[in-house]
Specification:
By secondary structure, the protein is of the alpha+beta class. The protein has a single domain (2-72), classed as Lrp/AsnC effector binding domain/regulation of amino acid metabolism (RAM) domain (Alpha-Beta Plaits), CATH 3.30.70.920. It contains 2 helices and 4 strands.
């Protein structure tokens, strides 16, 4: 299943955070954004639970991450 994760960062180097996200095999692609959110990451997981675990353990735990919003693809 696919999901998109919107990531809001504290004051930091966005490229460094992007590179760290892309080092995870679950992250299919990721981009730095202008606007309210700083990064958009597309992730691949087996189940919604696996996606949630990945986001909690590998994205929300990053020191520079302030907030996330996970959007699970319906179709």
């Amino acid at each position: 299943m696919l999901a998109y994760v919107l990531v809001g960062l504290l004051e930091c180097d966005e490229q460094e955070c992007l590179d760290k996200l892309l080092s995870n095999k679950e992250v299919v692609e990721a981009h730095i954004l202008f606007g309210e959110w700083d990064i958009l990451a597309k992730i691949q997981a087996k189940t919604p639970e696996d996606a949630g675990t990945f986001v909690m353990e590998n994205i929300r735990s990053m020191p520079d991450v302030k907030i996330t919003s996970t959007l699970i693809v319906a179709r």
